[in-house]
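Human:
Focus on the backbone:
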Amino acid sequence: MFTQKRGKEGEKKAEQFLRKKGYQIIARNYRTPVGEIDIIAEKNEELVFIEVKKRSSSKFGIGAEAVTAQKQNKIIRSAQLYMKRFCEGETNCRFDVISIDAKNIRHIENAFTA
């Protein structure tokens, strides 16, 4: 339960961070049969799928390091399902990671590609 609470707090903090940077939040915790996308946002006509990782400290590495190849594949497959359902025509998109620890928020744009 503690991990879920920390995750929700991290997503809320990431959402506020993104809004300040001019992103429009489209969805949070978008669930598909293959996985979940923490935040879906849009900026400059680009759809952005965002994974949020929050850690209480960076003692054992930053949160972004926890976005493994397996996790990336789930996010990519979930994004494909989202786009198939909601997007018409060609849509520019990218995959970002927001890593939050006790003191810092790191926004890694284009953290991985499909």
Observations:
- The mean pLDDT is 90.
- The longest helix spans residues 2-20.
